[in-house]
Amino acid sequence: MRISRSRSVLLAGAVAVTLSATALPAAFAAPSSTAVISEVYGGGGNSGATLTRDFVELANSGSAAYDLSGFSVQYLPGAPSAGSLWQVSALTGSVAPGGRYLVAQAAGTGGTVALPTPDATGTVAMSAASGTVALVSGTTPLTCRTAADCATDTRIVDLVGYGSAVVREGSGPVTGASATASVARAASLADTDDNAADLSAATPTPVNAAGETSGGGEGPGDPGNPTEPGTVRVHDIQGITRVSPLDGKAVTGVPGVVTAVRTTGSRGFWIQDTAPDADPRTGEGVFVYTGSTAPAVAVGDSVLVSGTVDEYYPSATTQSITEITSPRTTVLSSGNALPAPVVLDAAAVPAAYVPSAGGGSIDALPLEPSTYALDLYETLEGTRVQIADTRVTGATTAYDEIWVTVDPRQNPTRRGGTLYSSYTDQNTGRIKVMSLDTTRPFPVGNVGDVLSGTTTGVIDYASFGGYNLQATELGTLTDHHLRREVTRGQKGGELAVATYNVENLDALDDQAKFDTLAEGVAVNLSSPDIVSLEEIQDDNGAVSDGTVGSEATLKRFTDAIVAAGGPRYSWRYVAPQDGQDGGEPGGNIRNVFLFNPHRVSFVDRAGGDATTAVLAVPTKKGVTLSVSPGRINPASAAWDDSRKPLVGEFLFHGKPVFVIGNHFASKGGDQPLHGRYQEPSRSSETKRVQQAAEVNTFVKSLLAADKSARVVTLGDLNDFAFSPTMSALTAGKALKPLITTLPANEQYSYVYEGNSQTLDHILTSPGIRRFDYDVVHINAEFADQASDHDPQIVRIKVDGRR
Asked: Residue 215: its pLDDT value, please?
């Protein structure tokens, strides 16, 4: 099993490891007198190599067996970057006294001699020249990146750094490793916790627990390239659950026809068995991962594939992709007919989305493809499928992806999307379409367009979006001419208040971004009296130099609004403390009020700053603010590393209106809808509920002083109308969410993974009795967008009459 956030291209190599009580400086632990890493080889299969695979060898000089249950061998590149991950190979069994234990790693394309039968098998492609191997008590990936940091990790039993490795024991790494040389410990297995002294370069000599040497476990000749099928078929590999029953096992001569080839990114090819079994739970297609090597096959080739079965997890919370790794492929013939594609349509996809595991993993649950959509997609993983005339529910992205639905009857929105209306009512027909044909431009589509004709390809899985169709034949796009909306202008007696997330706007952005966002305010929103902005950054954006002001950013933005035909807006904000409000590092994100001084007045009360809490002040005439603009309880832990709400007091026709601009904590860290944990955990929700409670408490303090106080609470709340966040915000009927006043098929302002949903909101207090509310769709449904959010506007009669 592999878990990785981004699959990287690694050098094929081999590592031999001996177990040691420590791989750290002697000050941290005594040298081992039992288990050590005895040999590391990363050149397997490289040009000039004899052995076909990398390996790590462990040895035990003690008088008792050394139990490896729950242990792992882990590998780190020699010069790790901040994003480098330790790669884990799990171990079982034990090392006999005086014995060896062989961990086979990735195979390359060269070499002629197989390893002896390994005692454990990993999939790590190690560098021949430089790297670090650790024997670890446990299978959780290490996080240390330096020798000093690793020295404090008590899970490390032994460690060997070779070549120019930064992480090593003692005075320096052992040198001399290459495509033809391993690094090995002396016959005495002495361990002084100094890699350079304890190991030296040598001819690779892998030995397994049975005492076999090279070639002993895989037979004579070239068993990696058989000419007759082996006993294992693709459906045996896929099995009846999400995890292969052969995970980690070597397979030989798996037959199939190549149905698709991927030459960029995670390179490899898909094969499908032309003689499927009768069990609908067992898939007939599988991905063959070739890593940095371009696939040497073509669509229509009949092949036999040997390698290691692996469940690759794109991240810790996603489902896995069943693969054959370190492959050796024999092409038997070419130009063969492909298996007929499975047709995916409304009749084929179940109405239920995924089984429940009470928040646990669904990996081991038997698949029920006729009951659950995600089970169906899992059984089709690696299989040819076909869709036809599918409606676009998520516009083309910058990564050449487009979301469609094969079930257009599911929760359609007024403009052609698919509405996400509850945690339990998932849209099962959504699927992301990508193209394996890099020679043709990808179609640019908006929500409501149709991917016409047939699109054929193979089902794959990714951390973003889950199951997707890797198209080998792409349909044509039919433009349904979706248009950006323009809301009506406010009447003389109406106060128009809007919210708009302008997506990390700062003075260093291109003028085109300013102009497009400005047109949204001046034209599409018809120049509201007040605009609450989210994601205004400091004037130099991500540059982290202590700058916190946004004057240049707001000057450019308001100038662009004037140029687009809008009014000359004034602005108010409270500058955050440097680095304390989350968002992009260095950006100092904040909420800002724009207002048209010819229509509405801002009540300035001095004293508001990043750390001062705004309070409701009762007066004989109602309620006022202690400071304006101000921030709600900025010292509360609810706002740690997060945007603080901005509160301002306005006068419209002589009457006070209180506006609260919000940008609650993001959904980062939540488990995906399509992930292996069901129901998915929404860990980020805890902070948003706390933030909502703070805002609710403040609104109630205004209403306690004046029950008729006119309060507009709005912004990017990063949560749904049916969420606990909204329940906390509206508790005690302090606020009314206006999104729920719209027809159901219009209740959205954001599109994510083909789901039209609502993260942005406007809420009003009971003192606002007459209003006209509108979500203005100008961004979220379009491939060409200035922000990923649609703005919203409410027009209110401050005196309660029309």
From this structure: 52
